[in-house]
Amino acid sequence: MRLHVGCAMWSLKSWQGRFIGSSDRLRSYSGWCDAVEGNTTFYATPALDTVRSWADQTSPDFRFVLKLPREATHVRQLSDVEVLSEFYRVIEPLGDRVHALWIQLPGSFGPGDLPILSRFLRGLPTDFRYAVEVRDPAFFHDPRELSARLAESRAEWVPFDTTAFFRTPPTSDGEREAWLKKPRMPLRTAALTDRPIIRYLGRDDPARTIEGWQRWVPIVAGWLREGRTPTFFVHTPDNADAPELCRRFHDEVRALVPELEPLPVPQALEPEGPATLW
């Protein structure tokens, strides 16, 4: 029984000296969380040696949810599977650490485009699991056809829960920026597969973030009792406390499911060396 929790990145300036050290930042992060969103792969396929370093810095139990390159999803609009051949070659060192490959689709992708998605999913390598995120609200108003097509490929539907964030006006510069950029998505709490993935956006105030995720705690606990392996990603506009919040969510679910093993205790960071002139 596993509940994976993680953030949208494994390195942030405000985490330095608190959650991560000055080197091997992924290794430090993996002491706090056991999953991460791989957003960088959307913009560029990393070098093979870089991916090998990701594997070296994480335990076999750590999980990556890697976003498919935008060349496939946005530029070529799901018309070309072959463009992903280098991406698949490069991520091979991660092995089972690849929990799912994440297909984030633009808001322009609507219900009329579902045959294109079905063809694309059928053409992808079957030794990976896939998770699809859509942004057109029409899918949420009538989810049946998308759910059926995803089920054909054992693909999960990834909801981005922004409902708590948009409940009240922003109160910080970071929240004001997110208010303009983040999608206002309808709430979805159903799982299609044994590996549901939730992306949750809270507020910069940790107490309000915790308050906003309360609906998810019993849902995730129920999935665990059903034998599913959920992954819960915590976002806030500044992400300053995100690793600690991930552990708090895990603890709240574990209070309902005591047989869920706790996350490992983070290792103390090595103190930074004294400043020198050299």
Automatic annotation (TrEMBL):
Q: Give the matching SUPFAM superfamilies.
A: TM1631-like
Q: Name one Pfam family in it.
A: DUF72
Q: Which domain of life is it from?
A: Bacteria
Q: Which organism is it from?
A: Actinoplanes couchii
Coiled-coil spans are none
| Gene3D superfamilies xref list | Protein of unknown function UPF0759
Name used for this protein in its record? DUF72 domain-containing protein
